[in-house]
Amino acid sequence: MRILQVVTYISPDGAYGGPVRVAINQAKALSEMGHEVVVAAAAGGFEGPLPDAFDGFPVHLFPARRVIPKSGFAGLTSPSLLNWFRGAMRNVDVIHVHLARDLVTLPVAAIALLAKKPLVVQTHGMIDHTDNVLGVPLDRILTRPVLRAARCVMYLTDREQADLIDVAGANLRLAHLPNGVPLPESPATEHAQGPHVAPEALYLARLHPRKRPLVFVRAAGALSTVFPTARFSLVGADEGEGKAVHAALQRQNGIGRITWSGSVAPEKTLERMRKAAVYVLPSTDEPFPMAVLEAMSLGLPVIVTDTCGLAPMVQEQSAGIVCSDDPEDVERALARLLADPELRLEMGYHARRAVKKTYSMPSVAAKLLSIYTTAYKLKESPA
Q: Which of 215, 240, 312, 359 has the most CB atoms around its CB within 10 Å?
């Protein structure tokens, strides 16, 4: 099968996060199954010419252009990508758009529909109710028509399914598709070498208000004296909380063991995670964080809040600790894992097993291929 995937934005620091990792993981797995996969995106932040590969997979990248100031990724477009897409889509069987409210993926999806090409979309929790002054007309003109006409709309969680119905109505062709990650051959170093003398608690995510890096810094400050050998590390690009995090670190007495090292290239994420003992993501309303799955794939116990889309699985599989969004609750969860190396190893083992059983790329790719096949054979779109 010939498949064309489009995602909004690719950059060397992985600023667009999970959707890019999902697209690349899917493309690699489908290619290994013998299918022809093309991944395209708007891009920026690279030195020199745009690369023709990203994280080890061939990509078609086109310069991103900002047309709406101070609007994040939503205000980006790429005329050269849209022009290229019109020709590239002619020779593919299915078009898979990682859809968001932006001026890259929505126009791409609309072009595919006008050409009557089989279109499936995956929204990654990025489309829900909005009263935004730009979002409301965009939904009327593009978002709703695209969702209603797509041959399949893929969702991650029950909440995302409800959000999509709220935005575009009940007459959608919906299908559940979990994210997946490759299972690394080598697990976290604690599993190979035994508990660390100086265990590291790791926050690896964008420094964005929703992800609440300051909650991690607060917990680290409180626990640095309780666990004098422990280390607390933040890794991620600044997306609004950098100044506040820097100021908070300056106030901490244990600043030498509480650090922020900036972003890490996506292809080096697992290598960085492997050194840690605990992965912490204090986010609220996080639909399906890829970084949590990646940490679990290495055998790291994870700490997430009860509004995280992966919280039920973490709880059921004893793959870590699910806590409330109260900063003190996050602190208690981290203290519990730092104090008990055997619990860390046990929960880490459960985490790696859960990824292998439910979120491995071969099983996700097989389900995705079934969705593609149904979309390709479908001749009509819902009214």
A: 215
